[in-house]
Design a protein that fits this description.
Elements lengths: L6 H25 L11 H27 L4 H25 L9 H14 L6 H22 L29 H21 L9 H11 L2 H22 L1
Helix pairs in contact: 1-2, 1-7, 1-8, 2-4, 2-6, 3-4, 4-6, 5-6
Length: 244
């Protein structure tokens, strides 16, 4: 039996997609020399990235809450999970071709693949998800101090362990979405979704209007869009750069 979809939830995901597209367009314009911005240090860009990733992961948590509420089977979960994991491998391959020294080995899709599994396994933990989410986010701000005070823990900065996020220095990579703190955001999305489904179910049936319906349509195809939008943007900018 197919699971019901909610336009309001898909529109929220679609909003994140539009915001991400504008951000990536500016990033690509910077790469080709049309802009001169520091996307790695300027707070204007750093905080935008944080907000976009947070919105994506919070929405993913909301989606998992809906799936659990509607009794999504494990076989259906695994079908979706394999698509996310496969897409993450494609992102690694594509980024390696363009940025071999800083390719994406644990970006947003890699993180989502792991987080979706964790959140699915903890879906029934109720209010504990709020506490777990807060702890995961708080670890972000304590890990660096612990590693500095305890040099033996510096191994966590190595590539084979830094997917955990317990690092004192950011790895050299174009996208980095480790479990800490981002699992906390998805846990909060799951907790918020479970609460809303029981206490404010009407929120999921809000009328979104024409613009909202357009965003919802985009949100339903978020994974395919995520994979295709950067190659398309880069291709168009390469063509424009060649024709200058």
């Amino acid at each position: 039996m197919p699971l019901s979809r909610f336009d309001s939830l898909d529109a929220l995901r679609g909003t994140a997609i539009v915001w991400m597209t504008v951000f990536h367009l500016c990033f690509d314009l910077n790469h080709f020399g049309y802009l001169h911005e520091n996307f790695y240090a300027d707070p204007f860009w750093v905080w935008q990235r944080t907000a976009i990733v947070s919105l994506f992961l919070f929405t993913a948590g909301l989606g998992q809450a809906v799936a659990a509420h509607q009794g999504q089977s494990w076989s259906r979960f695994w079908r979706r999970w394999r698509r996310v994991a496969g897409a993450a491998l494609l992102v690694s391959a594509g980024s390696y071709a363009m940025y071999p020294q800083s390719f994406i080995y644990f970006g947003v899709l890699h993180g989502m693949a792991v987080m979706l599994l964790v959140v699915r396994l903890t879906a029934g933990w109720g209010r504990w998800l709020w506490l777990l989410g807060g702890m995961a986010i708080a670890l972000k701000f304590t890990a660096a101090g612990v590693i500095t005070a305890w040099p033996e823990a510096d191994f966590l900065n190595q590539k084979m362990f830094n997917w955990l996020g317990l690092v004192s220095r950011k790895p050299i990579t174009e996208d980095y979405v480790p479990l800490v703190p981002w699992l906390g955001v998805m846990w909060w999305g799951m907790a918020a979704g479970r609460w809303a489904l029981h206490q404010r179910p009407q929120w999921f049936s809000l009328q979104t209007g024409p613009a909202g319906r357009a965003l919802a349509s985009l949100g339903r195809w978020s994974l395919g869009y995520y994979l295709l939008h950067q190659p398309l943007l880069i291709g168009l900018l390469m063509a424009a750069h060649t024709l200058k």
